[in-house]
From TrEMBL, chain A:
InterPro entries: AAA+_ATPase (IPR003593), ABC_transporter-like_ATP-bd (IPR003439), ABC_transporter-like_CS (IPR017871), ABC_transpr_LolD-like (IPR015854), MacB-like_ATP-bd (IPR017911), P-loop_NTPase (IPR027417). SMART domains: AAA. Keywords: ATP-binding, Nucleotide-binding, Transport. Pfam families: ABC_tran (PF00005). The keyword Nucleotide-binding applies. It comes from the Archaea. Residues 6-223 form the ABC transporter domain. One of its GO terms (molecular function) is ATP binding. This is Putative ABC transport system ATP-binding protein. GO terms for cellular component: plasma membrane. The keyword DNA-binding does not apply. Gene3D superfamilies: P-loop containing nucleotide triphosphate hydrolases.
Automatic annotation (TrEMBL), chain B:
The keyword Lipid biosynthesis does not apply. Belongs to the ABC-4 integral membrane protein family. Keywords: Cell membrane, Membrane, Transmembrane, Transmembrane helix. It is a multi-pass membrane protein. The chain crosses the membrane at residues 28-51, 253-277, 347-368. Pfam families: FtsX, MacB_PCD. Residues 258-375 form the ABC3 transporter permease C-terminal domain. InterPro entries: ABC3_permease_C (IPR003838), MacB_PCD (IPR025857), Macrolide_Exporter_MacB (IPR050250). This is Putative ABC transport system permease protein. It comes from the Archaea. Its main location: membrane. It is found in: Cell membrane.
Amino acid sequence: MSTSVIELDGVVKRYQSGEETIEALKGVDFTANRGEMVTVIGPSGSGKSTMLNMIGLLDTPSEGSVHLDGRDVTDFSEDELTEERRSGIGFVFQAFHLLPMLTATENVELPSMWDTDVDRRDRAIDLLGRVGLSDRLSHTPDQLSGGQQQRVAIARALINEPDILLADEPTGNLDQDTGATILDELTRLKEEEDIAIVAVTHDEQLVEYADREVNLVDGEIGE
Amino acid sequence: MSIRDLLWQLPSVGMAWRNLGRSRVRTALATLGIIIGVVAIASLGMAGVAIQQQATSNLGGIADEVTIRSGTDSTTDGVTQEQVDRIRDVAGDATVIPEKTNSTTLTARDGSERFVSVTGLTRASTLYEVSSGDNPDRLRSGALLTNSTARQLGLEIGDPVEYDGQLYRIRGLIESGGGGFGGGSELVLPLSALRDQNYYDSVTIVASDGDEAQRISDAVETRFNEGDEEILSVTSFASIQENVGSFLDTLNLALLGIGSISLIVASVAILNVMLMSTIERRGEIGVLRAVGIRRGEVLRMILAEAAFLGIIGGFVGAALSLGVGLVAFEVLAGDATLVFGWASVRYLLLGFGFAVVASLLSGLYPAWKAANDPPVEALRS
Ligand SMILES: Nc1ncnc2c1ncn2[C@@H]1O[C@H](COP(=O)(O)OP(=O)(O)O)[C@@H](O)[C@H]1O
Ligand SMILES: [Mg+2]
């Protein structure tokens, strides 16, 4: 039996830009379960990133509710949301977003850097080993290829043992083959760690790896 | 555990250190601004102290003395005995030394002549330092002569000098410049030698300290001079010292003001540098916030960067200022080691403290702004 880790209920997100109000999400219902990889696919501007921000507790909905592990987190304060992100959610970005002055190991440690946790370093090294970067531990991002950087980012997303890993166009900046290896990696980790993965893309390639596919068109889930 | 590991025990500090290392030139320039500010504050402050110490030591014991002469509204051509007695009343425990002055020509052994100033007084020991021979508390007979005059005339202790047709035996040799402002006389004789002069030319009062001198000076003024009238002219060096002192205080304040302005300019530069670097790193800080770094942690990280700038700049600035201080004290006060006195060392601490506080204050706004930037907005940028 699978448990829903994240749940969006009738989520509406409006943005005010000038006089105009843009409705980026128009009542989205969505759930993701442990051990499954869901891809959200849709054209550019359809609201994929906005939806991922709702799931990742980076932003709050204008209407509707968000549940994390069965708890209603819709009205959490920014500080409470930060704690949830820290302990329960991992992020992988299209542009990798590693810190250039930190080594691979330090980048992986980053989310737990401020915790007084002694085996943080060991876990970071272990994770880097699992994404095949044992020999790149003290390299800085500029010494790594795009695919390697994205693996470091994946290891970073896993450092706090999240329940859910969110990826916004994770292969968007990579070539076809490298993208495929990253997706292989994610699929394997999903099973090993028993986490939910929500990946957003406009790239059909990702769909092959998905357990489930959600189409987002103009802020609405389509068929 | 290495220093690096220790640094990372405080992640904010470790992150700050790495961040500053990323744009070395910018960091160096920001630090330079602080260094200049600190050097300005600390070395100007210390120079002020050096000037003050030099001025005080130059004024020395003079501040304890009051000199009284006949004023412009006096009916007599000098200070009368009756006035001296009344001055004694006012002076209390302080030593009152009336003096008559004149000049004469002394003849050397080889027949050459020399024009010298003469003073007649009883309490020579209070006003003159004797370098050889004796210096009686009360000079009743005999004479004192300055070393240099004695040398020029080839005179020695025991030799006679003539004044007004009478011979006086030299009892002691004195250093020149004794006896109040403007230097003393070359030949010191008993008061009786100048008995032809009815009035005293000056009365010197030696008080126990500057405050007492000031008190006596004020009392003499009120006792003898009514309104704008000047029967006696009273010169107190205590008031001069006070004036010099307050002038120096003002000078010091002005110097510190200049120093503070340069530190304010430096803090504006830091504010600018921190603001620019946080704006540039907006996306990066968004990532930090997205992966669960707390607002307070981001704030501490950026404040640590500002603190680093302040500490490094403050330290280097204080070190340079110490160098400037050593030179200033060597030149102005003649003793470089005086720089280690609290009066000047506190300016080093002040400069350092100012640098750290100013940097932290300048870092506050950029840090606050970065910490409170919504992560989605920051990531979109
Ligand atoms: N912060 C914002 N302010 C204004 N409009 C926004 C903001 N974020 C997204 N939008 C708008 O919402 C719509 C959906 O954007 P987004 O979720 O980024 O789409 P996608 O990721 O599918 O390309 C777009 O029209 C975009 O311009
Ligand atoms: Mg997007």
